[in-house]
Amino acid sequence: MVTIIVPRRTDRPESDATGLFQYHLRSRRKNYSQEEFAEIFGAAEPDLEEVERFASSHKMKLMEIHPGKRSVVIRSAINELQTVFAVRMHYYKQAHQLC
Question: Residue 75: inside a domain, yes or no?
Fold first, then answer.
C-alpha cells in the first residue's frame, strides 16, 4: 500500500494556518471539530478527485480517502507501483538485535 499526501486546500482565507497554532495562547485558540478542521485545512475535493482519477487510470485500488488528513491510500501490485512512480523497491531483512 502507498499513501499519497494531497496539498492543503487554499481556497478559504482561514486555511492559511501560518502561525495559527504556534503563537496563540491555548485559551484563545479556536477548537475545531474534525469536520470543521477537514473543511478548512483538509484537502480540496478537486485534488482528491485528481488522485482518484490517477489511481483508477493505473488500475490501482483505492483503499482509504481522508480529506482531513489530506491522504489517499492506494493498493497495487509492486511491479505496477514501481512503473507508475518510477522507483525500484528492494526487500531488506534485518538481523534480530537485542537492546
Answer: yes
Task: Report helix, strand and coil shares of the chain as percent, to nearest 5.
Answer: 35, 15, 45
Given this model, what pLDDT does residue 14 score?
A: 60
Kindly list the averaged pLDDT for each block of 10 residues, start to end, along the chain of length 99: 89 60 64 84 92 94 94 94 90 76
Q: For the chain, what is the domain count?
A: 1
The pTM score is: 0.71
The domain in which residue 48 lies consists of 2-85
Report how far residue 75's alpha carbon sits from residue 7's, in angstroms, rounded to the nearest whole number.
20
Rounding to the nearest 10 degrees, give the CA dihedral for residues 70, 72, 73, 74. -160
Cell representation of residue 92 = 531488506
